[in-house]
Design goal:
270 residues; mainly alpha; 0% strand; globular
Length: 270
């Protein structure tokens, strides 16, 4: 029994070491591609400023529109920006990098785990930058410190789920030039949501779709945790249980697409 436990511990430890090695590889790319990192940080800021000052909105929303918009933009940022990860995965596949890694004594899936860990770190930095810009334009949270941490946790959960969806779609696409076509599938998730306006402003059937969108659930839940409901109180089951859905949706998405991505990755060697 002791021998088995030791072997299991060694296997897990090796997998963690290999994953950290792949994470450092992805982080090293940041130093060689600073423009790409900068664009990833600036793009959500541009969206936030554009919707706040140029497009405006807020129909059906009481109080300051920024209190409604900014948390929605946090959630939207967690959904967008997957193209860099998808392109990186397909480039590694086409350049034979993955094949070289497979020839090494490396744990299965360490490449994907390293890629996801680096993406999550960049997503956290991007979220912190966006929160800073939100504070600069007058947005404030009114919840407790614990509630703020819970809101950040829900946002990162959504990102983690969307990340594994993106990794799987990247391996299905197979080539960098096909990523743009696959990425289009992600856009409806972002814009058919309550990030910018309330579902009550939409046709009934579209409002229902929007309310059940994973992004909408996270946006509604973090607004509540930040104390930024802006007078918007939905009456549907999805709106009243947004916190529950904000946890369930990422768990379901990860439960589906992480195994699919790993299985697809392992099948590439056959």
């Amino acid at each position: 029994m002791t021998g088995t436990t030791g072997t299991t511990g060694t296997t897990v430890g090796r997998a963690m070491t290999d994953s950290w090695t792949m994470t450092r590889r992805e982080l090293a790319h940041w130093a060689r591609q600073p423009v790409q990192v900068l664009v990833g940080l600036v793009f959500p800021v541009m969206l936030l400023l554009m919707f706040t000052y140029l497009i405006g909105g807020g129909k059906g929303i009481e109080g300051e529109y920024a209190a409604f918009l900014v948390p929605g933009m946090f959630a939207l940022t967690m959904v967008f920006g997957l193209d860099a990860t998808m392109v990186a995965v397909t480039q590694d596949l086409n350049k034979g990098v993955i094949d070289r890694f497979r020839s090494m004594p490396m744990a299965n899936g360490a490449v994907l785990v390293g890629r996801s860990a680096a993406d999550m770190l960049q997503s956290f930095v991007s979220l912190m930058v966006l929160m800073g810009v939100g504070l600069a334009i007058g947005w404030r949270w009114h919840g407790s410190s614990l509630a703020v941490l819970a809101a950040v946790g829900l946002l990162l959960m959504l990102r983690f789920a969307m990340l594994w969806l993106g990794i799987y779609l990247a391996m299905v696409a197979g080539k960098p030039e096909l990523v743009a076509a696959v990425q289009i599938l992600v856009w409806p998730v972002g814009f058919l949501s309550n990030a910018f306006t309330v579902p009550e402003n939409m046709p009934d059937w579209l409002g229902t779709v929007v309310e059940w969108n994973p992004l909408s659930a996270t946006a509604t839940a973090v607004r509540d945790l930040f104390g930024n409901d802006a007078g918007v109180v939905g009456t549907s089951w999805a709106a009243e249980h947004a916190g529950l859905l904000a946890v369930l949706w990422p768990v379901v998405l990860v439960g589906v697409f992480l195994p699919l991505a790993v299985r697809r990755f392992m099948a590439l060697s056959k």
